[in-house]
Amino acid sequence: MATNPNPDIARRNYIGIGIGNNVAAQTWIRWLDEDVRPMTEVIENDSAMGVVEEINDSEVAAKWVEGNLGGKITVQSFGFILLNHYGAVSTGTAVSGKYPHTFSVSQLAVAPVMTYIRKTPLSTKRHNKLTIDTLEITAEEKAYVTYSSAIKATIGTESTETPAFITESEFQAKNIVVKEASTAAALSAADPKRVISFKLNSERPSEAEFTLGNDDDPDFYRQTFKANGEMVVNYQDTAVDDELVNNTIRAMSITMTNGTDELSFTMTKVKTRELERSSDKNEKVTATIQFIAEYDATVGRAIQPLLKNARASYTAA
C-alpha cells in the first residue's frame, strides 16, 4: 500500500486520455473537477448458523472505476472527450492550418477503445474501456465555458507516465454566438440571440456487464442517446411562449470562436419542452427555456459537433 507523509493536494494529480487499450496519454487534461474512484459490488454470505448474526462473510463480485471529470473546454483536448462520448469522428482537409473534425453519434453499443490515465503522488494507473456516459457544457456571462462528464472504466493497472501539457485555446462567454432560425439553411444569416446563459447536455448511459470468469474486466454497453439543453434570455417576445404551445421546430447553432479555433454544435430539429419566467416583481423578467434536440431524419442526426483546431487527427498514436 502506497503512503505519503503529507496530505495530497489534488492539483498535483494528472489526468490523461489515449486512444487504444493500455496506451500512454495522447493528451493531458487541465481539469477543474475529478473524482474518479474505485467502485465495487459485494455479495454477502448469510450462512451464519446457530446465532442471530446474519452475515458471516462477503466477496467482491465486481470492481471498476467511476466518477466525474470536468474542466474548461480546451480546443484540442476536448476532441478526445467528444470522440469517446459521441463515438465517431471524420476529419477533413486543413484550411489555413486548422483541421475540421466532425463528430457523430456512433450506432455501436460500445465506446471507442480508449484509456483513462490517472497519475497521483500515490499511484499511477491506466484504466481501459473509458466510457463517457454524460456530457454537460455550461456557459455563463463573464466566465469560461466549462464541461462536466460522468465516466466509467476498468479498475486499472499500474503504469509509468510522463505528463506533458500543450498550449491550447480556451473559450469564454464573449466567444460564443447562439443562433436560431426556422431552418438550418437560414442559420448563417440569422441574428445572434442575446443569451444570458446556456447548458447543453447529452447522455448515453451504459451498463457494466461482467461475463463469467472475471470480476475486473467489464464491458460497458451503451443505451440510447439524447441531447437537450437550457437557455436563459430576457423575456421580450411572446414568440418563446408560442414555440412551446405549438411545439415549433427550429434550428439552433452554438458557436465558440477563439482566433481561428472553433467549436460548434448544430441542431436542426429543436423543440421547447418547458418554459419558466422569473417572477420577482423588482427584477427584470427572464425566460428559462428547456429544449430538446430531436433526431432529424432528413440529415440523419440530432446534433452535430464540429471542432476546428491544429490537431491533424483523433486516431491512435
What does this 3D model show about the protein?
The chain is mainly beta and 317 residues long. It has one domain (12-39, 61-309). 5% of the residues lie in helices and 48% in strands. The protein has two helices and 21 strands. The strands form three sheets. Strands 3, 4, 5, 6, 7, 10, 11, 13, 14, 17, 18, 19, 20 and 21 form a 14-stranded antiparallel β-sheet that branches. A hairpin with a 5-residue loop joins β10 and β11. The chain is globular, with a radius of gyration of 22 Å.
What is the secondary structure topology, with strand pairs?
Blueprint: E1 14-19, E2 27-29, E3 31-34, E4 37-45, E5 57-72, H1 78-86, E6 87-91, E7 99-105, E8 114-119, E9 124-127, E10 131-140, E11 146-153, E12 157-158, E13 176-181, E14 195-203, E15 206-209, E16 219-222, E17 226-234, H2 239-245, E18 250-258, E19 261-277, E20 286-293, E21 304-309
Antiparallel strand pairs: 1-2, 1-8, 3-5, 4-5, 5-11, 6-7, 7-21, 8-9, 9-12, 10-11, 10-14, 13-18, 14-17, 15-16, 17-20, 18-19, 19-20, 19-21
